[in-house]
Amino acid sequence: MAELKNVIGKQLPKMPKFYITRLVFDEKHLNLVGIKSGKVIGGITFRCFEKQGMTKFIEVVFCAIIAN
């Protein structure tokens, strides 16, 4: 998750680093990471909102991919 935090920070340079860190490592948020050749190349940080045990809404917080 630290590598994902670094990718997001690089792709969103105006976003405060403490905010990225707080949400990427928050237990209420989930992270889906893309890996190529053993390195994190991107990912999505999101949060699911449930009602009566069913997911009703998913909020995408960050979506970042390394551009080469």
Structure description:
- The protein has two helices and three strands; from the N terminus they run H-H-E-E-E.
- Helix content is 26%, strand content 47%.
- The longest helix is centred in the first third of the chain and has 10 residues, at 2-11.
- It has helices at residues 2-11, 17-24; strands spanning 30-36, 39-51, 54-65.
- The protein has a single domain (2-65), classed as 3-Layer(aba) Sandwich (Aminopeptidase).
- The model has no long low-confidence stretch (mean pLDDT 95).
- Helix 1 packs antiparallel against helix 2.
- The protein starts with a helix and ends with a strand.
- It is α+β, with helices and mostly antiparallel strands and 68 residues long.
- The chain has a three-stranded antiparallel sheet, with helices on one face.
- A hairpin with a 2-residue loop joins strand 1 (30-36) and strand 2 (39-51).
- One of its GO terms (cellular component) is histone acetyltransferase complex.
- GO terms for molecular function: histone H3 acetyltransferase activity.
- InterPro entries: GCN5 (IPR037800).
Give the terminus-to-terminus CA distance: 21 Å
> How many domain regions?
1
Mean pLDDT across every amino acid position: 95
Please give the radius of gyration in angstroms: 13 Å
According to CATH, the homologous superfamily is Gcn5-related N-acetyltransferase (GNAT)
CATH topology: Aminopeptidase
CATH architecture: 3-Layer(aba) Sandwich
Broad structural category: alpha+beta
Number of helices: 2
- Report the CATH C-level class: Alpha Beta
Characterize the main sheet: 3 strands, antiparallel
Q: Biggest sheet, strands in spatial order?
A: 1-2-3
**Which bin fits the share of residues in helices?**
25-40%
How many β-strand stretches? 3
Element order: H for helix, E for strand: HHEEE
